[in-house]
Here is the input.
Amino acid sequence: MTDELEAAERALAIEHEAVYAYGVVGGVLDPGTAEAGRALDGYEAHRARRDRLEDVIQELGGEPVPADPGYVLPAPVTDASSAARLARRVEDRSAVAYAQLVGSSVGVLREVAVGWLTDAATRGLSWGAAPTAFPGLRPVTS
Amino acid sequence: MGPTALSRRKLLASAGLGVGVLALAGCSDRVDGAPADDATSPAGSADLELARRVARRVGALLDALAGAAKEHRELRAILRPLQARHREHVGAFTPDGETLRFPGLFGVPRTAEATLAALVRSERGAAVAIGNAALIARSGELAGALASAAASMAQHVVLLEAARDDERGGS
Here is the structure.
């Protein structure tokens, strides 16, 4: 399997989680609020990316993995605060996946991944994430 | 498959770049599977020059932020964290052992609001330019680091626009 395909498959797995998570986030927010609008926007963005990644994986000769029926959340989501925390986590994991995809791809897919990484970084900010010098990258600890 | 921080410094260390302190989990050094280039190969040399250009561009931005903070004390609390992140960018992309000179970006405008607007334009321009640099990097790791730095500058645009709007509302 190529690095490009592997990174795309990893990103698709993250997107399946993201779509599920944004459904949970939107479910606890009051309809009509700015947060609910942001959750819907995030849900639609991640769903569109999931669909695009499924196409990409097929074009690369892979078999897109389907979504799991459900995902274990890191913590209960019961209010706006816990919903924002989950959304921040989703965007952070997305940023990691897209930084990997940028580094593993070329051409159009890399260009798309650069845009998705920027989107994850700014969307995370909108949920209260702290800005960082290198979104999606981790310091080497060893 | 969860992300793990793997050190993939081979190419960048051999090219003399500081980006190797960051990890791009699960990413190969080269996207085509070829052996890593060193700084003396055409590809390694091209990446080195690309990183140098990016470091100069961000350095100019850092100077602009310093000038703005000096001129408008009330903006210091907003600008300091941006300066710190840009220092990280410059450190990551400056080839080891080199000291770069940065071109001036703009004279500091008289009002805080105009200064913030100028910084928004500069950060946005840098984000686009560095995102484009990520597209032509030969090394996958350098591409990821450039795209990540560009994403950081997009965050700066959001933060500076919010500050500018606050300034506009308060003035």
In short: Chain B touches chain A at residues 1, 3, 5, 7, 9, 20-28, 31-33, 81, 84-86, 88-89, 92, 127, 131, 134-135, 140-141, 143-145, 147-152, 154-156, 158-159 (CB under 8 Å). Chain B has a mean pLDDT of 81. The helical segments of chain B are 10-15, 42-71, 76-93, 112-136, 140-170.
